[in-house]
Write a structure and sequence with these properties.
With 427 residues, the protein is of the alpha/beta class. The chain has 17 helices and eleven strands. Strand 4 and strand 5 form a beta hairpin.
Amino acid sequence: MRAGKALRGVAVALAGALALTACGGGGEAADSGPAKLRMTVWSANEAHLKLFNEIADEYRKNHPDVAEIKFDPLPFDTYTTTLTTQIAGGNAPDLAWIFENSAPDFVASGALLPLDDTLKKAEGYQYEDLSPATLKLWQDGGKLYAYPFSTSPFGVFVNTDLVRKAGQKTPAELIAAGQWTWDNALATAAATAGKSGKAGLVIRDFDYKGWDNLSTFWTGWGAQAWSEDGKSCGFGSPEMVDAMTTLHKAIFTGKALPGPGTTADFFAGDAAMTVTQISRASLLKEGGFGWDLVPLPAGPKGDYAVVGQAGLGVLKKSPHAKQAADFLAFLTNPTNSAKLAQFFPPPRQSQLTAETLARTNPKLKPEQLQKVVIDGITNGVVKPNHAGQAELSQQVRAGLDPLWQPNADVKAVLDGVCAKIQPLLAK
């Protein structure tokens, strides 16, 4: 009983917080004196924050009406919940990073300020350079409610030292031989884990909680969390059952992935491979282990790519909404977009070339950027997102919990997930 109430509470909190923020039209009365802006972000990475602050300092040189721009990192696992709690509690930020999985709720809520006019009027902004495909998730009624700050495909970082010491072919060698498949990737991970005593493959930010990150795996089988129109559950499909059966065996039989309750940080040298995005490349240490970055392995349905998107929006009721929107335009102009591209692949078509991205990504080779980032953006599908994602996500996570034990009945568990979420999808 308590669990059911908690799940409903998450959805109600998100909807209520956004509705509350949307009420009343424009911004609250501005404070007297220069504005102090706050932007919530998911990353506490020093390199990310250093670049954000450098751009903010540059902006403030010519904008005396803005006294401070603070970047407020929130924990990744609870980011959206914390953000909506701040909004509901009257402590909303001026700008907020928004994940793709909550984009439909934020965009439709009326809580965000339309950005089109500000961006189009900003000197030298080149709005027409933004890829229309990257804008779709953040538009409603012909208006843009969040800038697609990062359109970042998932790839596989590889500790080539661990793989070679285990006597295995590296993913690059498997790619050259036309053998970079999930079957071979999992076999390599299992063998390396067995020889090294460390983890084989880690799907970063999954940790048996962030289920939507598993879309980087099951998409290779042609599986989907729900249908394109969002009305039908896909967890019980034959493709999903095959994908999750493969994953279950890899965890509990092959030991290719660390099991529940076990953590392993690839960037600390604790795993042979990890599925994640290029923004994590900043965690690689100079003089550390040998590494590579390669595309996701092919699944039974062939090659594919999965993209994570993050938007940057201005809260309509910010007392400094005008200044916040103006800073957003500066933060994402062509010059600063090129700087940010070292971590966050931009939506600007002119900047999505291997040569351009390589200038600000010294750790990554042009070939890696082309195959993982550019080709991934061109061909990738976005991680699962849906209106009412908060409650959906909680129900999926709860429904998948019985899967993470050795003797689980995979099909029965997945059918149970559909039983939980189909009523929500059909609304």
